[in-house]
Design a protein that fits this description.
The protein is mostly helical and 297 residues long. It folds into 2 domains: 2-37; 60-292, MetI-like fold. The chain has helices spanning 2-37, 41-47, 59-64, 68-101, 108-120, 125-135, 143-146, 153-163, 168-176, 181-192, 194-210, 213-218, 227-243, 261-292. Helix 5 (108-120) runs antiparallel to helix 8 (153-163), helix 11 runs antiparallel to helix 14 (261-292) and helix 13 (227-243) packs antiparallel against helix 14 (261-292). It holds the Pfam family BPD_transp_1. One of its GO terms (cellular component) is plasma membrane.
Length: 297
């Protein structure tokens, strides 16, 4: 028994060491990104990347925050899109998953096949653009950023697998007590599905937060530009000015002072930073939602 205890402690130590190394492999690159964003451009070009900035500089952030109101407006659009899109997507996903998870639903097989079929084939970019702009008339509206990613068949199937784990006897007993379908859904299914909802909500919010292509297609108004597209435009501007310096000798712009590499990292921090503060609030549901909400046929 003593030998077994020593062996288990030895194995546990190596397992903990392995996970520490894995955690460091994920944390250290992000710390390096922050350090590079606070390093002067000349130091990066001459001394390379360091976890401790050899020459501290905030030029990258000062360039990005040169027009703070535009940045704040872009953050507001992204936050609004993420919140509304995540709530609406979770509502539609859970409702659809609840329907196809019910064995007494007559068309459960064709409906599930239809949902699965849409995972394999999509309508294409041109039909989607025509639908959003000409039929739904959503161009230059906030809904053009929300509707394209609102419903995912993959998330529906994950939610279906989770709801399928709920004993059907609970639903049957609620029906015997006179509960309606809406009451069963809101007062029983949703509270029991908190781990799956939190997990899918995190994935959906990440998708909305990092989305920039719908804005590139459907948004012309500067007031509806999300943060990802705004940062992409800034990065393109910096790249243009730095790569075209030989053609700009007649202008009063010192392109050698433009932060290029440091600005890339600063934009990464600004784009990913807010979502890193959201993740800890969902962490307690994350593992359970992934393991229990497995896919089933």
């Amino acid at each position: 028994m003593i030998r077994t205890g020593k062996q288990s402690s030895f194995v546990e130590m190596w397992i903990n060491l392995l996970f520490i190394l894995v955690a460091l492999s994920m944390v250290v690159p992000f710390l390096l990104v922050i350090a590079i964003s606070l390093t002067s451009e000349e130091a990066i070009l001459t001394k390379g990347y360091h976890l401790i900035p050899p020459a501290f500089s905030t030029d990258a952030y000062r360039y990005i925050f040169k027009s703070p109101m535009i940045l704040i407006q872009a953050y507001w659009v992204t936050i609004l899109t993420t919140v509304i899109g995540t709530i609406a997507s979770l509502a539609l996903t859970s409702m659809t998953a609840y329907v196809v998870s019910r064995k007494d639903y007559r068309y459960v097989k064709p409906t599930t096949f239809y949902i699965f079929f849409t995972m394999l084939f999509s309508g294409g970019l041109v039909p989607s653009y025509i639908l959003i702009t000409q039929y739904l008339h959503l161009k230059d509206t906030i809904w053009a950023l929300i509707l394209p990613g609102m419903l995912s068949p993959f998330y529906i199937l994950i939610m279906k697998g989770f709801i399928g784990e709920i004993p059907k006897e609970l639903i049957e007993s609620s029906k015997v007590d006179g509960a309606s379908e809406w009451r069963i859904y809101f007062q029983m299914i949703l509270p029991l599905s908190k781990p799956a909802l939190a997990t899918l909500g995190l994935f959906i919010s990440f998708n909305y937060w990092n989305s920039w292509f719908p804005a590139l297609l459907y948004i012309n108004s500067e007031k509806l530009v999300p943060i990802q597209l705004l940062l992409t435009r800034m990065m393109n501007t910096i790249n243009f000015l730095t790569t075209s310096a030989q053609f700009m000798s007649g202008l009063s712009i010192d392109t050698s002072k433009f932060p290029n590499l440091s600005a890339r990292m600063a934009m990464t921090v600004l784009a990913a930073g807010p979502m890193m503060f959201v993740f800890p609030f969902f962490q307690k549901y994350f593992v359970k939602g992934l393991t229990v909400g497995s896919l089933k046929g």
